[in-house]
Amino acid sequence: QVQLVESGGGLVQAGGSLRLSCAASGRAFSTYAMGWFRQAPGKEREFVATINWSGGITYYADSVKGRFTISRANAKNTVYLQMNSLKPEDTAVYYCTSRPTLGEYSDPRAHDYWGQGTQVTVSS
Predict the structure, then answer these.
(1) Using CA of residue 88, residue 116, residue 60, residue 51, what is the dihedral sign?
(2) Residue 116: exposed, middle, or buried by beta-carbon count in 10 A (0-12, 13-18, 19+)?
(3) What is the pLDDT of residues 35-60, one digit of tens each?
């Protein structure tokens, strides 16, 4: 079993930065792929970024590529999402996810574990 707790969300002006953190419990963390999804009001949940167990492989949604960076610290059971050059359209609840493999990373149905979410609001 894996439990995920996100933190770091908040209100920021367009062009600003935030770093989200996701603390995971469970001994399987270092062997699991991790990811971030987001959901804006009235929209479907969408893939943001994912990282494999070692941190050597990452994938990003086109909408965040070049602005967001996913990373992990296995010794701390933590995954991060550094968000730069934020835009109002990045406003959403951001969710951390975990699953045994990297496959089908953009499909939310393929993710076994979810955090409770953290709100990110970008003002124009």
Answers:
(1) positive
(2) exposed
(3) 999 999 999 999 999 999 999 999 99
